Amino acid sequence: MGLAGVDMVIVPATTGQMGVLPGHVATIAELKPGVLSVHEGNETTKYFVSSGFVFIHANSFADIIAVEAVPLDQIDANLVQKGLVEFTQKLSSATTDLEKAEAQIGIDVHSALNSALTG
Amino acid sequence: MASNAAVPFWRAAGMTYITYSNICANLVRNCLKEPYKAEALSREKVHFSISKWTDGKPEKATLRSDSPDE
């Protein structure tokens, strides 16, 4: 994505949607799967972030670090629905803690993708 | 000083953050439309060589070339 000067970004922190404006206090926050929206003037560009961190520096620079960040129009709604059904089933048939955790991650990510597309 | 935040469920199940983050990324990649999906799957591939060292010398190297898996 690279460097850009914008008015505000809203990041999906684990503690909830966090709005970041110039002059924000320096913060490090962990991100959960969700929508990142970049606001500039009247335009908003939205991306889905798989997970990661946001570093907000004292000089009004913010770095968003994510393994995957995709524009919302690259997401296929059918695949999201299929995935949600599949992982909900996996959770009910999971036995070990690890399997349950993996299934729960699948549900969380697909629900977040779903809300991103419908929200 | 003990933290009073709840431990995330994946950490409680014995998973590390990096495993969690990679699983999330793979799930997102699998939900992409074509042609983005093909490009994304190529990002999942790893290709590296690994060797154990003893007495300051490397032993036989093994080449790992993992393609994306579940």
From TrEMBL, chain A:
Every ATP synthase F1 complex delta/epsilon subunit N-terminal domain range: 6-60
Alphabetical keyword list: Ion transport, Membrane, Transport
Domain of life per record: Eukaryota
Transport among keywords: yes
Family matches, as Pfam families: ATP-synt_DE_N
Localization (cell): Membrane
Key word Ion transport present: yes
Similarity comment: Belongs to the ATPase epsilon chain family.
Record-given protein name: ATP synthase F1 complex delta/epsilon subunit N-terminal domain-containing protein
Species assigned in the record: Hibiscus sabdariffa (roselle)
UniProtKB/TrEMBL annotation, chain B:
Record Pfam families: ATP-synt_Eps (PF04627)
Lineage: Eukaryota, Viridiplantae, Streptophyta, Embryophyta, Tracheophyta
Top-level taxon of the source organism: Eukaryota
The protein's name in its UniProt record: ATP synthase subunit epsilon, mitochondrial
Family: Belongs to the eukaryotic ATPase epsilon family.
Gene3D superfamilies reported in the protein's UniProt record: ATP synthase, F1 complex, epsilon subunit superfamily, mitochondrial
InterPro entries, alphabetized: ATP_synth_F1_esu_mt (IPR006721), ATP_synth_F1_esu_sf_mt (IPR036742)
Origin species: Hibiscus sabdariffa (roselle)
